[in-house]
Design brief:
The complex is a heterodimer of chains A (123) and B (292).
Chain A lengths: L1 E6 L17 E6 L5 E5 L9 H12 L3 E4 L4 H9 L3 E4 L8 H9 L4 E2 L12
Parallel strand pairs in A: 1-4, 4-5
Antiparallel strand pairs in A: 1-2, 2-3, 5-6
Helix pairs in contact in A: 1-2
Chain B lengths: L1 E5 L7 H12 L4 E6 L8 H4 L2 E15 L9 H5 L5 E4 L2 E4 L9 H5 L5 E15 L5 E7 L7 H9 L15 E6 L6 H7 L4 E6 L3 H16 L4 E8 L5 H9 L3 E6 L2 H8 L4 H4 L2 H18 L1
Parallel strand pairs in B: 1-8, 1-9, 2-7, 2-8, 9-10, 10-11
Antiparallel strand pairs in B: 3-6, 4-5, 6-7
Helix pairs in contact in B: 1-11, 5-6
The chains are: A alpha/beta (123), B alpha/beta (292).
Chain lengths: 123, 292
Amino acid sequence: MKLAISITGQTLDSPFDARFGRAASFCLVDTDTGSWTVHANPALSASGGAGVQAAQFIAQLGAQAIVSGAYGPKAYTTLAAANIQRFLASGHDGRTAADILTAFKSGHLATADDATHGGHHGG
Amino acid sequence: MRIVVASGKGGTGKTTVSTSLAQVAAEAYSVRFLDCDVEAPNAALFLHPALATQREVGILVPRVDTQACTHCGKCAEVCQFHAIAVVGQTVLVFDDLCHGCGSCTLICPEQAISEQLSVIGVIDTGLTPEGIAFAQGVMNVGQAMGVPILRELKKWTPEAMPATCDAPRQPLEIRDAPPGASCPVVETMRGAEFVLFVTEPTPFGLHDLKQVAAIAREFDLPAGVVINRDGIGDDAIDTYCAVQNLPILLRIPLERRIAEALASGQTLVDAAPEYRTLFKDLLERIVARMNA
Ligand code: SF4
Ligand code: SF4
């Protein structure tokens, strides 16, 4: 399956970024073959609705699952509508996207069954 | 003539100044007072208008006909606020992100979008005992979009101006700006002819003054400064004003008597009548600058 991971850099070895809408980029990994691509997050410069825009972007990339640190209500709704599975990982332990991928494969990641924070003001 | 009273941050005494200025102006002008602080309007507490009318203000948000929609994604692409998203076979609309600009409706090739009014707040209007035509915008709790309310508020024209026995008076509009330096403040200043900054002589006061002064400069508006609680801090504001060529038009010292009267809902000029002359003088200097 295609898994998206929010990251701060340009490769699979870049640090995991726990922010979803404001992550620098997304690493898209094929969990079966291990091949990956990195895509800059277009929502980085959004003044409002970053979560929605990032979620749409992930959907357009064809991801079936996403790992990030938190999802606001609008990002959550959009990801759910796109049938993208939502996984959570902590951003505090200095992991890379590759580490997240390993944790994902071993089934160690929690799923987000609801929005994890109240969201930001839309402005 | 349209005067904006702004401060950058809350609690500097902006409303103290705007309400007293309005009361003094009402002696010579036909005054219209707009409380533009739609998140927390409070000028009514001092001017005591009899609020007679209330009107709902809203924006037009899109509603998608799922039968007609082909999920082409054009609406989501055009929306700069990401208030509408197309994922797979679903179109999501987030009303609280929508600015009601109508772009999505226009671009939809299937005419699948219709517009529905979403109420975001109200405008209250009425007359004060001195005959000031008063209006305030009040944003609904949980809304984040003050600007559409401000636009409506600015369009408001009092139906019947108070009857005056003397000759017809010149209209004068006073806008009490919201705190901060974001979009609502910009919208409040748009179309004005003068900005009066109310600040206090502290580092925070100076920081916020700089921000609002920058907005006024964008609009090329003449401006002046009122220093409230004069004497509590340093003279950095004086220095800044001198460098920027911003005239300091009035200084209000920190006085317990004034603070207590304000807390009980009196305006400054009602509580301390000696300020009446000072505010008249302030108004004259503002008018002179506007006409200069
Ligand atoms: S533009 Fe119209 S047809 Fe295309 S996705 Fe939006 S609502 Fe549907
Ligand atoms: S009306 Fe404007 S802001 Fe609202 S969803 Fe449509 S394009 Fe976006």
